[in-house]
Amino acid sequence: MFEALGITAAGTQMIVVFFALMLLRVPVAFALGLSALYAMWKIGFGLDLAGDLIATSITRFSLLAIPFFILAGTLMGSLGIAERMIRFFRVAVGGLPGGMGVVGTVVCLFWGAVSGSGPASVAAIGPMIIKGMEEDGYDRAFAAGLVVTGAAFSIVIPPSIGLVIYGVIAETSISRLFIAAIIPGVFMALTMVAVLPFARRTRSPSLAALSPDPYAGMARGRALWTSFRDSFWGLMTPVLILGGIYAGIFTPTEAALIATVYALAVGAFAYRTLTWRRLYDALGTAAASSAVVMLIVAYASLFGWVVIVEDLVGSYSGALLGLSDREWVILGVIMVILLVAGMFMDPVTVMFIALPIFLPVAREMGWDPVWFGVLVMVNLAIGLITPPVGINLYVAANVTRLPIERVARGAWPFLLASLVGIAAVAAVPQMSLMLLDLLR
Fold first, then answer.
1. For labelling alongside 206, which of 16, 80, 245, 350 has CA 20 to 30 A away?
2. Which residue(s) pair with 201 in the sheet?
3. Is residue 191 within 8 Å of 418, Cβ to Cβ?
4. Alpha carbon of 435 to those of 77, 149, 251, 325: distances in Å?
5. Where is the TRAP C4-dicarboxylate transport system permease DctM subunit domain (predicted)?
6. pLDDT digit string, tens, across residues 249-292
7. d(C-alpha 293, C-alpha 67), whole Å
8. How far apart are CA 284 and CA 52, in angstroms?
9. In terms of DSSP H, where are the helices of 209-326?
10. Residue 72 and residue 115: Cα distance in Å, rounded?
11. What is the 3 state secondary structure string of 144-186?
């Protein structure tokens, strides 16, 4: 069949098979594995090689950060840490123009420094933020749109699971990637805040009227101090994680384990919310989420091996470089490809398929790999909120009981604002590199 279509290279056939399986709604991990196994058989390599490739790919020390960061975020959501943080930020910034919209943006930004996973962030903090925004007069779909967009940038705000994977693939310092992502992540949050004045609100109740509010009736100063005291141990989480990494006390991988132990300690001793049932549920949820990611990593190793053996990197990157001699044209094409790919695949899959092709182009162009990594993450974050496979949309639809079409419409204003943010990150590399230069 492929020969009749003029497709003779096994690597190109593999890509066609992969997208055909995706159209048939085969899970991404299995689509990667089956298409790669087909190509290996076509080339003539023994399939017993597949086991060695998979074992090699998933036994990298740096990948241990993924399941532990997922577990830490799950624990902090189930042990009441997220709820206390939302209460604090509601007191601290809820009185600003935009009310709970500003609170939701700040919490999403802050939770990104805890969870590192977009869907996990929607599930953990989405119900509380959406309920508060509804009480503050925002449309339910608009509130859901803010949450899915803010949670999407969890893969940009460090510690980011996406940046961990990029660092492994690109052989780039994960700590440097974390530092470089801070300012772009904050900037993307500011673009979200800029959308809030244009939202149609049915009413504008006072902050004290929102429920539940345990600080109602307190003087502002006392309410701020009490809410800060109640949420202190949760607020210290990103300080502990990021401070330890940047100070060189521990590596990002070790930080994931420390974050998990810290979450357990806070739940057991500070808030006394840890129970055997909650621990069991958190372990089950984190294990399921981690298994999905690690299955993709495992099968993507087979896919990547075929890409290298068939020299698809050389041919496709050469074709990309041949499009133009202008850097901005090539960069624009890469960004469009990432945005479109993100509409159909999750960020991890896109990275394992696209980065082996794009990284040689980035090196040829002389682009800083750290800046390029942050730009890739910002692009892929958008994929989490774009149909038909924007997984954050599906999680939010489940949380709100709204049709996914309404959630997607609610996210449109934030999507447009995010495109402005992407353009800024691409046009001003120093936005990503500024902190690295200051810390030298």
1. 80
2. 138
3. yes
4. 30, 25, 19, 31
5. 15-431
6. 888 778 888 888 998 999 999 889 999 999 999 899 888 877 87
7. 9
8. 28
9. 220-246, 252-265, 276-309, 312-321
10. 7
11. HHHHHHHHHHHHCCCCCHHHHHHHHHHCCCHHHHHHHCHHHHH
